[in-house]
Automatic annotation (TrEMBL):
Transmembrane segments: none annotated. NCBIfam families: ahpD_dom. It comes from Plantactinospora siamensis. This is Carboxymuconolactone decarboxylase family protein. PANTHER family: 4-CARBOXYMUCONOLACTONE DECARBOXYLASE FAMILY PROTEIN (AFU_ORTHOLOGUE AFUA_6G11590), BLL7811 PROTEIN. It comes from the Bacteria. Gene3D superfamilies: AhpD-like.
Length: 161
C-alpha cells in the first residue's frame, strides 16, 4: 500500500518538517546518551505501530553501533537482561508517556522517581521532549500511511543540515 499523502513533497509539510527536524537536533545534541535516544524512539514507535519510525530508528541505531540483541529485545525490555537500569527507567518513561490514555495519571510517580535517579535535569528535559517528539512523528507517519523499509541511515541528518 502506498502512502495516502506525500508529506515530503508538500510545501507546507516541508516547512513544518524543517522546524520539526530542527527541534529534534536540540535533543540529538543534548547530554542524553545517543543509544538511549534510539531505544526510546524505537520503543514508542513500536507501541504506536509506526513502521517508518521503527525502520529509521533501528537503522540509525545499527549505524551507531547498537547490537542486534538489544534492538531485538526492546519490545520485551522488562524480560531481558541487556539494558542498564538507566535505560530501563527511560524505556518505562517512554512507554507510560506514549500510553497516556491507558492510565489516568500518565507517567507514574514510581517511574518518574527512577528517571530522577539516573538522569540530570538536562537529560530529563531531553528525554521528556524526545518522548513527545517521537509520538508526534509516529502520528504524522501513521496518519498518512508512511511505510517503513526504505530509510537509509543518515538521511534524517542530511535533511536537517
Amino acid at each position: 500500500m502506498d502512502a495516502r499523502f506525500n508529506m515530503f513533497e508538500n510545501e507546507l509539510a516541508g516547512r513544518f518538517f524543517k522546524r520539526f527536524a530542527n527541534s529534534a537536533q536540540v535533543i540529538h545534541q543534548s547530554p542524553l546518551p545517543p543509544a538511549t535516544q534510539e531505544l526510546v524512539s524505537l520503543r514508542a514507535s513500536q507501541i504506536n505501530g509506526c513502521g517508518w519510525c521503527i525502520d529509521m530508528h533501528t537503522k540509525e541505531a545499527v549505524a551507531a553501533g547498537e547490537t542486534a540483541v538489544r534492538l531485538n529485545l526492546v519490545a520485551a525490555w522488562r524480560e531481558s537482561t541487556v539494558f542498564t537500569e538507566a535505560e530501563r527507567a527511560a524505556l518505562a518513561l517512554a512507554e507510560e508517556g506514549t500510553r497516556l490514555a491507558d492510565a489516568y495519571q500518565g507517567v507514574s510517580d514510581e517511574t518518574w522517581a527512577r528517571v530522577r535517579e539516573h538522569y540530570d535535569d538536562d537529560q530529563i528535559a531531553a528525554l521528556v521532549c524526545l518522548v513527545s517528539l517521537i509520538n508526534a512523528a509516529n502520528r504524522l507517519a501513521v496518519i498518512v500511511h508512511q511505510r517503513g523499509g526504505s530509510y537509509q541511515p543518515g538521511a534524517f541528518a542530511a535533511a536537517t543540515s
